[in-house]
Design brief:
By secondary structure, this protein is mostly beta strands. The chain has one domain: Gamma-B Crystallin, domain 1. Helices cover 15% and strands 59% of the residues. The chain has a six-stranded antiparallel β-sheet, with no helix packed on it. The radius of gyration is 15 Å and the shape is globular. Bound molecules: 2-acetamido-2-deoxy-beta-D-glucopyranose (NAG). The site of 2-acetamido-2-deoxy-beta-D-glucopyranose has 4 residues, from strand 3.
Length: 95
C-alpha cells in the first residue's frame, strides 16, 4: 500500500505541473468553455477544436489552424479573438 501511495502522490504532482513542464489553457471553442493542460514544446490537439473566441494560457502558445498551417501567437495571458481563430492544435512553451 505504501508504494501505491507514493505512486499516487507522484502522479498528482506530475498532473499539477510540479515536475512535468505543462501549460494550462482555457478557451472558448464554438461558444463553449473548456480547460486543458498541455505539455510544453509539443504539438497538442485541442480537446475541442473549433472557432476560438477567448484563449487564456499560462505559457506562450501558438494556435495552429492545422499542423503546418496558419498560426496565431498567444503569449501568456488572456486573449479575445474577433473574428474567431479556427484552431485544431496548440504548441506552447513555458514562460
Ligand atoms: C468556424 O467559422 C467558420 C467561418 O465563419 C465557419 O465556416 C465554420 O463553420 C465554423 N466552424 C464551426 C465548427 O463552427
Amino acid at each position: 500500500m505504501q508504494l501505491t501511495n507514493i505512486l499516487a502522490t507522484a502522479i498528482t504532482l506530475c498532473a499539477s505541473g510540479v515536475f512535468a513542464s505543462t501549460i494550462d489553457i482555457a478557451y472558448t471553442s464554438n461558444g463553449a468553455y473548456y480547460t486543458q493542460t498541455v505539455p510544453s514544446n509539443s504539438m497538442t490537439e485541442l480537446g475541442h477544436p473549433g472557432n476560438i473566441t477567448t484563449f487564456q494560457d499560462t505559457g506562450n502558445c501558438f494556435l495552429y489552424k492545422y499542423v503546418g498551417g496558419e498560426t496565431t501567437y498567444a503569449p501568456a495571458g488572456v486573449h479575445t479573438f474577433d473574428p474567431a481563430v479556427y484552431t485544431e492544435y496548440v504548441l506552447c512553451e513555458t514562460v
